[in-house]
Amino acid sequence: MRFTIILLSFFLLSCSMPLKKGKSEPVYVSLKVQGLRNADFGFLYEKQKGVSLELYKLAQVLLRLKIEDKICLEQACFEKKAFNQRYLGQAYYDDFLEDILRFKPLFEGKNLVQNACGFSQNLQGVNYDIRYQVCDKEMLFIEKKNNIRLSIKKVDNE
């Protein structure tokens, strides 16, 4: 009897513990990439092993992007370089999009210029021409050759 009560208590308490989804921040995202164009509010979730972005319109999920070992857009999952090639026009390196969503420098900080509120990078290659800026809670990524623009502003939730 005592064992049953302990087992039942353990089961009930473990079910009531909150699931760790990681750090979440409300964001305003403006996005223009091949096949996708959107400007709406959403949430950016950062975990140790990945990041995800959800955009909403009228309380409905409009776009769900999840990056862990693969990049999933809605229900379709891709290898990271394959996703980059398909949606960003260039294979880049595996964690390229995750670095952007985490507001981290690209290409291991190549051409990085520090400024008062963050940094900027101008990167050019045969198939890309990137302007990338991070300033406090705002990020702007522009890739001119493939006509891509992504901006994210972290919204204060106070």
Describe the structure.
With 158 residues, this protein is α+β, with helices and mostly antiparallel strands. The chain has one domain (20-154). Helix content is 19%, strand content 48%. It contains 3 helices and 11 strands. An 11-stranded antiparallel beta sheet has the order 6-5-4-3-2-1-11-10-9-8-7. It is globular.
Describe the structure in brief.
This protein has three helices and eleven strands; from the N terminus they run H-E-E-E-E-E-E-H-H-E-E-E-E-E. With 158 residues, the chain is of the alpha+beta class.
What's the helix and strand layout?
Blueprint: H1 2-16, E1 23-33, E2 36-47, E3 50-57, E4 60-67, E5 71-73, E6 76-78, H2 80-88, H3 96-101, E7 112-115, E8 118-124, E9 129-135, E10 138-143, E11 148-154
Q: What share of residues are in beta strands?
A: over 45%
Unreliable residue stretches: 3-20
Q: What number of domains?
A: 1
- Rg over alpha carbons: 19 Å
- N-to-C CA distance: 49 Å
Q: How do the strands line up in the largest sheet?
A: 6-5-4-3-2-1-11-10-9-8-7
Residues in helices, as a percent range: 10-25%
